[in-house]
Amino acid sequence: MSKRVVTLAHYYTAPEIQQMADKVGDSLELSLYARDANADVIVFAGVRFMAETAKILNPQAEVILPDAGSTCSLVTQTDVKRLKAWRDKHADHVHVSYINSSAEHKALSDWIVTSRNVDDIIAHLYAQGQKVIFSPDRNMGAYLNYQYGYDMPLWSAVCEVHDKFNETALNEGMAAVAGPRYLIAHPESPLPVLKRADYVGSTSGMLNWVKQFDREPDATLFVATEDGILYNMGLARPDLKIVQAPIYAGCQCNQCPYMKLNNVERVQRAQAGEGTRIDYLSHEQMDAARLPIERMLAFSEAQMRQAKPAPEVMPA
Length: 316
Ligand code: 13P
Ligand code: SF4
What we know:
14 helices; metal-binding; NadA_sf; transferase
């Protein structure tokens, strides 16, 4: 009997990879798809921490990463031994970790969050009177501390793609365009960029913001994130002028080198059963990492159930 193969792709993969996928989404959506997939094999066209999360949530399935090199700078910049010492130093704090982390890192966490639910989960913890430490993304943590007046001690790793956005290049690039201008940004970007953004959110959040854009039809929308999602934005709103936010003079290639290791040939090979199997995590490691992930999924699914559909006609 042939195996049931499900292919998942993140928004940052190239359009031709997204077209090969059964589902495309942000980190939260892809985690839910992976958990619920009725599949023998999950091909994860994303990066390793996403494939590991899929395996942890659906251990019966074989999970294949098309290219072994698809890591993430937030993972490689985090030494887990040092992280453990840092967490132990803050033993009276709740340790909230971004999903862009290794399985070992997740196992040292109380909660996992994605860029989609991080605001709500941390607000929930503060409302309970908890003290919180946040790892590994320093930019995201700095934004949360600034935006909500928190005092979370932060781990110091960055996304090497988003960390390249800077205020000067942005000011110059936006000033060079006539007419109304808007900036939307992923929270992995540096704080000065986020402070001037009209919207800050996850890849899906930014995509929805663009879908619902109903202001000046001649506006230019600057997007501070990896360029893969511009494909989805262009498909959703071909009528709008959507451009990458500038980084600095010179190379404007704000592409994630790890996401872009997913090419057609490698994904096809993974669908045929070749590639990097996520089969190296012990049951103990997976059990320990699953707890904080499931805590997050339960929180977000409860929120999704409560979400009321938008009224068709806005009240006067
Ligand atoms: P999202 O969860 O917003 O899709 O982000 C994933 C990611 O790696 C951003 O760099
Ligand atoms: Fe990691 Fe940045 Fe690539 Fe996202 S864009 S996978 S955070 S390196």
